[in-house]
Amino acid sequence: MSRWGRHKRQEEADAANAPAQAEAEDAQVSAWRSGRPKEKELTIDSRLTLRSGLRMPRFGLGTWQAQGGDCYQAVLEALKVGYRLIDTAQMYGNEAEVGRALQELQIPREEVFIVTKLTGREHGRVAAGHALRESLEKLKLPYVDLFLIHSPRGGLLIETWEAMLHLRDAGLTKAVGVSNFGPQHLRALQALGKELPEVNQIELHCGWHQKETVACCQELGIAVMAYSPLARGKLFGGPLRQVAWSGTEAGLCIRWALQKGYVVIPKSVTPERIRSNATVFQTSLDAVQMEQLESLDRGLCTCPAARAMDLPWAEVADRKPKGKGKGNSQPQARLPTRGETWVDALR
Ligand SMILES: NC(=O)c1ccc[n+]([C@@H]2O[C@H](COP(=O)([O-])OP(=O)(O)OC[C@H]3O[C@@H](n4cnc5c(N)ncnc54)[C@H](OP(=O)(O)O)[C@@H]3O)[C@@H](O)[C@H]2O)c1
């Protein structure tokens, strides 16, 4: 059987098993959270099942501030080591480099999970469609796996969220989600009766546990994706040293977040670090170590983007974004009709 045939068969088997796997994983994650021994080990290939049934890798590479050749090399290295999720964003200006690395390695499209994010300048019904189309051109992909609203700060959230759902239905992304959304933003979407995001990507690490937002996401069935999982290096050489751990401090941070059940995306452009960050699957944390890390929560905010989580819903629900994105300057286009793609509608 061809590689593609084998892959299709595996996908069908996975789809048939999805609910059972989701249940098994729920039990597994609660065991990991408490540091109890596990029947099934976490691996670099571990995935969680989103509400829609889409399987999302638990571990991936962050690319913020990875530019040009550095970004290209980092993505190449990560994919060779076995990372299967790459997190980029329109704002990072490196989607073309991510696309170049993907093309170079020719990994079957279905095996990699590509996340990009809508920049705040392109909020709005029409602009969001233009912006995703541009991302796909840069990435040289027919679709991304997850498209996130990067931040509530871009405003016009109600119509932007509706546009995101429309883009998902049109097949340009497998799933849609948000980033830097606080509980008040998620609850407002719920109160409006909107389909809820499948993922919320927030700053989350040993120094900031985001308990309220995590609890809200868990209640609403939204997967939590932990960004800046190394606290951008701010915890290194400090309280992490109190925990007996044979690996690196970076590894300790990553392992903690994985055992808490989050999707984790450490960034590095350094080949040795990319490789060493992926060795966290060899050792697990026990209940005592997890408890020690539990006590390090200081509400340490290391990324200015995270402050958008506190914006009042009334300020971002239908306020226009600041500045003018390229998409917003395009002539107004209609929404695609059934069976039509965004590309058709925007022509
Ligand atoms: N949605 C949002 O608003 C948002 C905001 C921030 C981040 N993110 C996403 O989350 C990803 C990760 O967050 P982040 O980049 O802010 O920070 P991070 O992953 O917490 O930390 C990255 C920093 O740690 C260093 N590093 C990596 N591995 C290391 C190791 N083993 N030992 C020592 N230092 C190590 C990196 O240096 P080198 O690269 O020089 O190796 C880099 O300076 C981003 O890249 C981005 O994809 C999203």
Automatic annotation (TrEMBL):
Keywords: Oxidoreductase. Residues 1-36, 317-347 are annotated as: Disordered. SUPFAM superfamilies: NAD(P)-linked oxidoreductase (SSF51430). Pfam families: Aldo_ket_red. Residues 60-237 form the NADP-dependent oxidoreductase domain. InterPro entries: AKR (IPR020471), Aldo/ket_reductase_CS (IPR018170), NAD(P)_OxRdtase_dom_sf (IPR036812), NADP_OxRdtase_dom (IPR023210). GO terms for molecular function: oxidoreductase activity, acting on the CH-OH group of donors, NAD or NADP as acceptor. Gene3D superfamilies: NADP-dependent oxidoreductase domain. PANTHER family: 2,5-DIKETO-D-GLUCONIC ACID REDUCTASE, ALDO_KETO REDUCTASE FAMILY PROTEIN. This is NADP-dependent oxidoreductase domain-containing protein. It comes from Effrenium voratum.
